[in-house]
Amino acid sequence: MLIPAEVATRHVAHREGYARAAQPRPMGMGLSLSGRRKDGSQLPVEISLSPINTAEARLIFCAVRDATERRATERQIRRLNEGLERQNTELQAVNNELEAFSYSVSHDLRAPLRAIDGFSKILQSSLEGSLSERDSDYFNRIRKAAQNMSKLIDDLLTLARVTRADVKLASLNLSRLATAVADRLLENQPERNVTLQIAPDIKVLADPALLQVAMENLLGNAFKFTSTKEKALIEVGCMSKDGETVVFVRDNGVGFDMNYADKLFTPFQRLHSASEFPGTGIGLASIKRVMSKLGGRIWAESSVGEGATFYLQFARIGAEQ
Amino acid sequence: MNRQSILLVEDNPDDIALMLHALSDNQIANPVVVVEDGEQALQTLFGAAGQAERGVPALILLDLNLPKRNGLEVLRELRNHPNTRLVPVVILTSSLEPSDRLNAYQAGANSYLRKPVDFDEFVHVAQQVGSYWLRLNQPAVDN
């Protein structure tokens, strides 16, 4: 290999300087060196130097390696890293914007609904006596529509919150959480005849806020879709599958047609009409997102009229590291 | 404003009308002073610079999302000022965001309520707030 013309004269002095105080120098140490090919073109090289002292003289063992590919790879890694950094900054900006957006949705979309519901109610009260049954029905429809939209906004906000939540995994007692959620549901519907069977001490690896969203939605659904049963039975249990915890929530409600099972977890997708069972179609989509954030998954089994079972598979406890 | 007054800090005219209606529905007879942004709220409580200080209300109903100075800024200033440090402040907002709730309590809110969309619930909230903070609760300083 030849020395590039522009350093050839300096190289003599460098070589002599090195020989006077020769130290081993490993391959690729700090210096950006070039060599010259026979045709005059240059190539990046890495050079290692090892002085060897013999009885006759000090020999310098010199290995030269073509670094073309290595330099190219380094450049590419740098480019990729810069690209990633840029994307990251952009994503962060989009995320902040989304956060501001859902905040504004929460405030600004709800205020007009309060006005629609409130003034309808005030008018309805002050016109009481002079309203026909049909007029009253219309007022009730206005109010019901406003309240449904408010529920829809709440559910959308929950979905958005779940999506952007920071996940902090910990071993949690799902039985205790399910019991608290179910007790609240029972309190709100004291006229219902619901038997709850919650297996004790089910431990799962989850984030407390996200698990709360999942259990509220699942048990809320179980209550809702058993509302036509005289005696509702809701079970929460647990089994182990390949070391992973699978929790099931089973009810004896109206169930659903397995042909539509894949649509169940899609936002806004409903399998029942609003007059049968009210809802926004966002609950199960939220749970699906929760489970994927927790590193688990959800699926369901049912047949019409036979109740439904939802299975939640959680990451293995101990997998948080 | 006197020591029986309720100071309502709310920028949405519909919410103001609904709140006044809900309070009167519940026979809460305390005079209500309405201001529509955070700056007005502070001026009403402290007067413009150099002016004598005004009376302190029995209760402040404070929205968070307000023009000029937002609810949190108003609350922090109230808590920094000896005259208003102990006035009961109930946050009344549309937001249920966990960060809003945390910030409000950290800034010294006494209570945090969400304005319900269902007007029956709205009236109920007004009734509960009135009966608790104006009748049941014993304030730090006698009115």
TrEMBL record, chain A:
Keywords tagged on the record: Coiled coil, Kinase, Membrane, Phosphoprotein, Transferase
Gene3D superfamilies according to UniProt: 1.10.287.130, Histidine kinase-like ATPase, C-terminal domain (3.30.565.10), PAS domain (3.30.450.20)
GO cellular component: plasma membrane
Pfam families in UniProt: HATPase_c, HisKA
Reaction it catalyzes: ATP + protein L-histidine = ADP + protein N-phospho-L-histidine
Coiled coil: 70-101
Top-level division of the source organism's lineage: Bacteria
GO MF assignments: phosphorelay response regulator activity; phosphorelay sensor kinase activity; protein kinase activator activity
Alphabetical list of PROSITE patterns matching this protein: HIS_KIN, PAC
Record-given protein name: histidine kinase
Organism per entry: Pseudomonas abyssi
Taxonomy of the source species: Bacteria, Pseudomonadati, Pseudomonadota, Gammaproteobacteria, Pseudomonadales
From TrEMBL, chain B:
Positions where 4-aspartylphosphate occurs in the chain: D63
Signal peptide, first to last residue: none
InterPro entries hit by this protein: CheY-like_superfamily (IPR011006), Sig_transdc_resp-reg_receiver (IPR001789), TCS_response_regulator (IPR052893)
GO biological process: phosphorelay signal transduction system
Alphabetically ordered keywords of this record: Phosphoprotein
Record's keyword annotation contains Phosphoprotein: yes
Keyword Phosphoprotein: yes
Residue span, Response regulatory domain: 5-130
Full protein name: Two-component system response regulator
Organism: Pseudomonas abyssi
